[in-house]
Amino acid sequence: MIRDNFKVLVIDLSTRKGDVVKMEGRNTEAGGSGLAAKLFQKYGHTDKPWDDPLQPLIFTIGPLTGYFPLMSKTVYAFKSPYHNQYTESHAGGRSALSLRFADYDGIVITGKASSPSCIYVGSRHLEVKDVHYLWGTDIQTSGKVLRKMFKGAGHRSILRIGPAGENRSAMACVNVDTYRHFGRLGGGGAMGAKNLKAVVIQGDVSFASPPDKRYPKLFQEVYKLLTSTEMMSKYHNLGTAGNVAVLNDLKALPWRNLKQTSDAEVTGITGEKFAEDALLRNVACSGCPVGCIHIGFVREKFMEENHYLYRQVSYDHEPIFATGSMLGVTSNFDVLGIIDAVEKMGLDVMSAGGALAWATEAFEKGMITESDTLIPLAFGDSEAYKVAVRHLGMGTNEFYRALGLGTLQAAKRYGGEDFACVLGQEMAGYATGEVFFTSQSLGFRHSHLDAAGYSYDQRKNERDTGKVVEFLIRDEQERVFLTSMVACLFARGVYTKELLAECLRSVGYVELAGNIESVSNNIQKLRWQVRLKTGFDPSKVRIPKRFYEVKNWHGPIDKDFFDELRRRYQEAILRLAQEDIIP
Amino acid sequence: MTYYILVHLLYLVQQARVCYIIKLNYELLKGIPVEILTAPRMERCIGCHSCSLACARLVHKRLSWDEAGIRIHTSGGLSTGFEAKTCLACNPAPCAAVCPTGAFSQRKGGGVVVRKRLCIRCGECAKACPVDAVYLDPSQEPFVCIHCGRCVSFCPHDCLEMVASPGGQVNEGVEKEVKNDTG
Ligand code: SF4
Ligand code: SF4
Ligand code: SF4
């Protein structure tokens, strides 16, 4: 192990100075999600709004980061512009290993810079630099300049926001190393509110390998499991994009603002189709041999005759669903074109897709007009969507600024709440049924990754709400330990509790290895306590009518079962948050 | 007296066995070409750093993506792909030629044999290398590939390969285990 406590760099943007803080808690909060919640308790302000300069932005890694494969993610915690409550977002790229080799377990950013700024941090370096000339630049341009400004290509991570983040949009993401994102719940807006355009983390220090002889052997074993044919075929081959056809066949792929769950036109946007025509190559997060990131391309004719340019764009199931089926766009290159536009603005692709899907239906129904949308919206019209994405990122007019606060917020004002596909935030790409809808709408991050609700819907036809709630709570608890390590959740099948204990032991965290069950239970409670203190009330989460109208392979949604399940899950969350943390 | 003869005889038998084993190994190794690490298929690279991390872990006993014989960099952003910084196995090796203490010495078949305890941290090897294959840590300790091949199996895309060096005759893959006290 590098240390048995936490070393955290606390940077105050107002003074442009940092402080290195040592904190106890390795055996109780572990790292990642646990450490982030602990840091929010110390530096966060539950009673102040998300954009108060005092609110912290928190980045954390875990005790296994860098030591084992797929321990490749960073947790970003902040008070969200989307719901003004505490939340987390996760991303990989090179962020986790850069933070590890910058020798910090966490970075906390408080205050507000007097001008657009960039933080540059390494193990022997801290600088808050004025970058007013980058304000207004899109993700590609700022990336190019930042790469030139700071040395260390390949061994550093560049986190940056686009215009959406600068405009404090609740749908703005933080782009990580071009192809990854702290996507959801407006983390980019939280950075923008601090006048913080970018964070560059230089991983420039090394550590002794663990002295325990078991470590290299265990590494090899874990590596083998993670590069097994099954893992590779699931995440490397077609990648998550392989789900598009599967879900469509199941009648569980949201189409045209969830008016349908299946469409024969899916053939243009399946993972197979992308692989055939548009896949250039795969890339990986640092420390991950799986390489699930699929890179496609867009090619644009910018001048007659035959003057073309091209750009590389990463794709996955979620972006394909959000800009493809959800918007009725059925050609893979059109999908990549919209994703590219979303990337430039620094928007979260799932939120942007969901928002524009609602806007299109509202436009169809005459609730909003062209004076609001500035361009007529119609399902399938990818060129119009590219323009609309730009307006959404720039916050061009009142309508787009309202939409950037969240689809339900806009719907409250313009009408159309019934068909706003929002489950805590814009839905993820699974119309699998009651368990998933419950899981996303009430889950801690309102993410499809909070618990495996979507696969539960597919595997079981359980009608006993008690059993389902037990599963959701249990699954969240297991995941919260993984996100405290911080593992990529694609590795969840390999990193069992027993294996994690072995890994922790081999690098010297013996006490933590022995207490995984109680520690994960405590972190789960802690996260909910912090979230509830910042205003979350599970009983206030409403489900728009559209979700009750869904029909998939199970048949129609069972309203009674769904409502009962939600009620019981709400109770379970409240119970959990009221429980004491047992030392 | 008998006891003394017996012990002596046993000792001789032991020695003979050791000599025989050495001879056998030598016979086995003779004629096997020296191998060197190459990175012939970097266009397949996904930038996972598994190779660097494996070299650091297994050869240098470090947790690092720098202190390794191979390091992965981007050439101007992720969209342009990856390149590997690793030793080309020069023969003669300019880095060994400038080394004032013999910490870097010529390896048969190309590259260098490293003796860390002789290194005085002058950093001359790094300056001499035409491809920036020698990494100097903050204390100027040099890290370079010793062509052992341990990283190869960790590359998920088969970018790396051990190949026979054009000039070598004796497999130093074994010799290096003895000489390279890489720390
Ligand atoms: S370290 Fe550089 S100079 Fe030395 S042998 Fe390798 S490539 Fe040649
Ligand atoms: S061949 Fe050996 S020394 Fe060279 S990079 Fe690979 S593991 Fe390191
Ligand atoms: S292990 Fe292979 S794919 Fe991974 S960084 Fe090294 S050369 Fe590239």
Q: What's the helix and strand layout?
A:
The complex is a heterodimer of chains A (583) and B (183).
Chain A lengths: L5 E7 L4 E7 L8 H12 L13 E4 L13 E6 L6 E6 L3 H7 L4 E5 L6 E6 L2 E6 L8 H11 L6 E5 L2 H4 L7 E3 L3 E3 L4 H6 L3 E7 L4 E2 L5 H13 L2 H9 L5 H7 L21 H7 L3 E3 L9 E11 L3 E9 L1 H7 L8 H14 L3 H16 L5 H4 L8 H13 L3 H6 L3 H8 L7 E2 L1 E2 L7 H9 L10 H7 L5 H21 L11 H10 L3 H5 L1 H18 L11 H4 L2 E2 L2 E2 L2 H20 L5
Chain B lengths: L1 H28 L5 E4 L11 H9 L3 E2 L6 E5 L7 E5 L7 H5 L5 E3 L5 E3 L9 H5 L6 E2 L5 E2 L17 E4 L7 H8 L4
Antiparallel strand pairs in B: 1-9, 3-4, 5-6, 7-8
The site of one iron/sulfur cluster (SF4) has 15 residues of chain B, from helix 3.
Give an overview of the whole structure:
Chain A is α+β, with helices and mostly antiparallel strands and 583 residues long. Among the domains of chain A are: 197 residues, Aldehyde ferredoxin oxidoreductase, N-terminal domain (Aldehyde Ferredoxin Oxidoreductase,  A, domain 1, 4-Layer Sandwich); 142 residues, Orthogonal Bundle (Aldehyde Ferredoxin Oxidoreductase Protein, subunit A, domain 2). Chain A has a six-stranded mixed β-sheet with strand order 2-1-6-3-4-5. A six-stranded mixed β-sheet of chain A has the order 8-7-12-9-10-11. In chain A, a hairpin with a 2-residue loop joins β7 and β8. In chain A, α17 packs parallel to α24 and α19 packs across α24. The longest helix of chain A has 21 residues. Chain B has 183 residues and is of the alpha+beta class. Chain B has one domain: Alpha-Beta Plaits (2-Layer Sandwich). Chain B is built from five helices and nine strands. In chain B, the strands form four sheets. In chain B, strands 1-9 form a two-stranded antiparallel ribbon. Chain B has a two-stranded antiparallel sheet with strand order 3-4. Chain B has a two-stranded antiparallel sheet with strand order 5-6. The C terminus of chain B is likely disordered. At the A-B interface, α3, β13, α6 and β14 of A face α2, β2 and β3 of B. One iron/sulfur cluster binds next to α2 and β4 of chain B.
